[in-house]
Amino acid sequence: MFTVAVCMAFLACLQAQELQGHVSIILLGATGDLAKKYLWQGLFQLYLDEVGKGYSFSFHGAALTSTKQGQELIAKVLESLSCPEDMEPGHCAELKGQFQRLSQYRHLKTNEDYMALSKDIEAQLQHEGLREAGRIFYFSVPPFAYADIARSINSSCRPGPGAWLRVVLEKPFGHDYVSAQQLATELGSFFQEEEMYRVDHYLGKQAVAQILPFRDQNRKALDGLWNRHHVERVEIIMKETVDAEGRTSFYEEYGVIRDVLQNHLTEVLTLVAMELPYNISSSKAVLQHKLQAFQALRGLQKGSAVLGQYQAYSRQVRREQQKPDSFYSLTPTFAGILVHVDNLRWEGVPFILMSGKALDERVGYIRILFRNQAYCAQNEKRWVVDQSQCLPRQIIFYIGHGELGSPAVLVSRNLFRPSLPSKSWKEVEGRPGLHLFGRPISDYYAYSPVREQDAYSVLISHIFHGRKDSFITTENLLASWVFWTPLLDSLAHEVPRLYPGGAENGFLLDFEFSGAQLRFCQQQLEQLVPGPGSAPMPSNFQVLTAKYRESPLISAWPEELISKLADDIEATAVRAVRRFGEFHLALSGGSSPVPLLEQLATGHFGFPWAQTHLWLVDERCVPLWDPESNFQGLQAHLLRYIRVPYYNIHPMPVHLHQRLCAEEDQGAQMYASEISALVTNSSFDLVLLGMGTDGHTASLFPQSPAGLDGTQPVVLTRSPYKPHQRMSLSLPLINRARKVAVLVMGRVKREITMLVSRAGHEPKKWPISGVLPSSGQLVWYMDYEAFLG
Ligand code: BG6
């Protein structure tokens, strides 16, 4: 009976092999660190999981090492492989023996080597009568080697018809958007998108891989909670105790943002923030939803980041890269970033991403902290853990290490009892005395994996099963770089805060946020002002008041100037609303007003926005959603933070009948009519202008044929700079305003400031010189750089 059963099983197995076919796995860089530490073990685990399920396998460890040396190295690695703890030792030894026999080393370098490999695979298939299912090439090699290997695989080592090819790539995938795109284009010339599996090993960490299944299996409980009304903040954290010693040549080029935040933490962020697809086992749906999450990320500003560098870092770079003693690196080894997701689900919820080397502990987690909106009437002593709504409520995906020492999913008992797959997750046994995130572990429903698995084993299994959603697609990769590159560029010369490393960091790296800004809690300890007799600091200056072109001039350092102007605008607004019930403000575009708008948006809580009408001084002839559009600037830096009734917002109609600024569409006339209908006497309460280096103001440029005089209140004009076509308020309309403020900032404006100070009324030459409100007031706001040079 037993013999019959074995024969049947064997036959079934043979048939299945016949059905499923043979898979060749080629590990490139098979003698390298990653391969030795994780990849061989992952391949062995794949073999253990899949053997007997219908596939046959061969494993080719490839490298540039000579055949003899390579064979010895591989034999050593294969000997050290281990089976899961619960496997019977005899069975383990048998399977390990099989795996060792199926694995061989080969020297792989030239195109001919790849051709020979392909021939050998085909010969084996023929000899054993197997059908080929597919080939996996795992690139565990530095990226500079990618192109040559990819070319050889594509030209000489593709599997036959009907069999699949999968190539697995390891980061870094570029250094910024442009380099990532170049690399992607190059790889795309050899491989189809579905053939490429870009690894982010964090997607293989068990707690991270559990985020979507957890959200799916607990939909009912989470549906009402997973949004801005209930989530106070999300923390995505990866702390390390190790530093970058030994790899500073890599680290100098990348730094912590490129090394960890752009990839690992961003991937996690999208898993938390994305809309949950109806069917999470559809890779396509998951990837699409992930991409949508990227599109909802609000662009980062310099102020969205705090940077640090452990003190020994520059010394290590000097030593490892033979740099002179005078060399100091600016590469951050610590970063905290504040991210906002601009959609209805997450608007206003801070997502804090943080990672660093040489910190006090090694730990990784994603913590979703819920708002506490309850008041508990009874004394704290009587609160019951799973019922009291006053105790903290949080969900934590614990990636590993730290106090707990293993991956886990934790849910506060006063939230809900979660459902997790009981085959792979078990409840954590009580650990008296252990506190996590401010609460004893007994306050949580806590689960950990039944069998802890290394991330690479998880991912190798996903590659084998074609689970593309655990990998980074080209679109996803580029979307991430689109998000991070502007911030990286803006931080390129930022000096990171130095920290001693380890427990000594104390509170030095703690940071806090207000609005969209992040800053360290503690002031820098170094003395910035060297003492008496030294050069004056910005704060030593007072706001200066004088006259410029016969009108009041206010001059200060930029921050104070912006504060003063914002205060003045608020005061004007309050006065206007008190007198007339409304305030009409016309704003210019460009970069100078950006800090002003942000200051108004985030620091002026008494501003009467509900009674304010916002008008545009000028506009570029581009669609309103174009980043070049002045209205888009207004939207990005002001409108999205404040509450103005939408009928009080008046963009210029540059885009009518699906075309831009066509004379026949009469957009300028339409705007003029709107002004005359809503603004008493067409007299704005306040017009904010700038001054260009050529003396232009609004979109009125030197020698402009329209707008410098005449009767047309709003005109179409041309700018010497792109985009050339513009719409602008005319000087006569501007001069009807009750008040005009001209904001001039930066050293580049110094020369024009001097020229205009001496000019008479010459609007054709210097349009700004034509600004002179007929019965209103003109005030100049110049920073010291523009005014004093
Ligand atoms: C790698 C980074 O991607 O991730 C390393 O390059 C970092 O700098 C490592 O140390 C952390 O991974 P893990 O699995 O140890 O958390």
Automatic annotation (TrEMBL):
Magnesium as UniProt keyword: no
InterPro entries according to UniProt: 6-phosphogluconolactonase_DevB, G6P_DH, G6P_DH_AS, G6P_DH_C, G6P_DH_NAD-bd, Glc/Gal-6P_isomerase, NAD(P)-bd_dom_sf, NagB/RpiA_transferase-like
EC number(s) given by UniProt: 1.1.1.363, 1.1.1.47, 3.1.1.31
Residue span, Glucosamine/galactosamine-6-phosphate isomerase domain: 558-780
Keywords for this protein: Carbohydrate metabolism, Endoplasmic reticulum, Glucose metabolism, Glycoprotein, Hydrolase, Multifunctional enzyme, NAD, NADP, Oxidoreductase, Pyrrolidone carboxylic acid, Signal
Reactions listed under catalytic activity: D-glucose + NAD(+) = D-glucono-1,5-lactone + NADH + H(+); 6-phospho-D-glucono-1,5-lactone + H2O = 6-phospho-D-gluconate + H(+); D-glucose 6-phosphate + NAD(+) = 6-phospho-D-glucono-1,5-lactone + NADH + H(+); D-glucosamine 6-phosphate + NADP(+) = 2-amino-2-deoxy-6-phospho-D-glucono-1,5-lactone + NADPH + 2 H(+)
Listed GO CC annotations: endoplasmic reticulum lumen; sarcoplasmic reticulum
Pathway: Carbohydrate degradation; pentose phosphate pathway; D-ribulose 5-phosphate from D-glucose 6-phosphate (oxidative stage): step 2/3
Molecular function terms, GO-annotated: 6-phosphogluconolactonase activity; glucose 1-dehydrogenase [NAD(P)+] activity; glucose-6-phosphate dehydrogenase activity; NADP binding
Ribosomal protein in keyword set: no
Localization per record: Endoplasmic reticulum lumen
Pfam families cross-referenced by the UniProt entry: G6PD_C, G6PD_N, Glucosamine_iso
Annotated signal peptide: 1-16
GO biological-process terms attached to the record: glucose metabolic process; pentose-phosphate shunt, oxidative branch; regulation of cortisol biosynthetic process
Complex and partners: Homodimer.
Family from the record: In the C-terminal section; belongs to the glucosamine/galactosamine-6-phosphate isomerase family. 6-phosphogluconolactonase subfamily.
Protein's name according to its UniProt entry: GDH/6PGL endoplasmic bifunctional protein
Gene: H6PD
